[in-house]
Amino acid sequence: MLNISTLAQNDRVQHELMVRARSDKTTRNGDPYAVITLGNATGQLAANVWKEQLPWIEGVKAGSIVQVIGAIELYQGRRQLKLTAPLRLVAGGTANLAEFLPHIAGDVAALWHTVDGWRTAIKAKSLRKAVDLFFADDAFRTLFEKSPGAPRGHHAQVGGLIQHVVEVGTIARAAADTMEGDVDLVTVGALLHDIGKVEAYSTGAAGFDHTTAGRLLGHVAIGALMLERRLRTLPDGTLTTAQELELHHFILSHHGQLQFGAAVQPMTLEADLLHWADQSSAKGNDFAEAVRDPDLFPGDEEFSVRKSWRLDRNVWKRSHSWA
Predict the structure, then answer these.
(1) Enclosing domain of residue 80
(2) Helices 160-178 & 138-146 angle (0-180, nearest 10)
(3) How far from each other are the two terminal CA atoms of the chain, in whole angstroms?
(4) Which of 65, 72, 123, 202 could form a disulfide with 95 if both were Cys (CB 3.0 to 4.6 A apart)?
(5) What is the pLDDT of residue 14?
(6) Domains identified in the chain, total number
(7) Are residues 55 and 169 in the same domain?
(8) DSSP tag of 36
(9) Cα–Cα distance measured from residue 301 to residue 291, given in angstroms and rounded to the nearest whole number
């Protein structure tokens, strides 16, 4: 497989790639052109297709697998692909789509081992029953482990959602223990807070996207609806009304501020710790990926050549070691 992340100026490309996006545009002079985003599991590159080359991409659309011939060039310090031959569509069914989508590097089985270890250690039977509504359901688990943490942004990979949730749970549990909070309660909050993403995001031939429900409602509202539906399947009296409301509160408040997508601000210690754990996982992932981004560090730079769009700042890649 072509490792897109390691490509440098003048490197040749002659590989099968997935079309992640196609945008047809017009120059200031009124001439048509297109921007094609091509990628595989290791990354993606954009290619400008000018007026005279437009026949090269006839029939090409998002989700197509194409044979690409070209070379890497730099424009304003950013890598892009210069096509030197027409894109050749690869017949459907001959390509393994898993090779074209980014995956987490970690072991999903190990992540499930952590999640299930937390579940079995929960002391309150009512809390255990609430979390098992989802995490003891094999169909939900299958969807959950394949979902990205976001279509574009933190943990935007197959398996990104379970990795994010384990990170959030690890941070929140440590914080609750330190601040004398309820570790079991914040654990359940961590496991439930992003359940809505399995219905809000889709994974297809063109990569990750929002579902119709995801666009109309967002994963926070979807998560609360999913929880409500499953809570209604429990026998009457399993949880009190106040207990059910507190579980909803984790989902609805975990973004912290209304302007960032929360329905309400966190109103308990555990909900606030969950919010900051969620932020720590997301921003930590943003930083970790920024220092590995060849478009931010195309050479041996110490500081990124431009701001990371996810962090809205330049980042420093230290040259020294503390070993």
Answers:
(1) 4-99
(2) 100
(3) 33
(4) 65
(5) 95
(6) 2
(7) no
(8) E
(9) 11
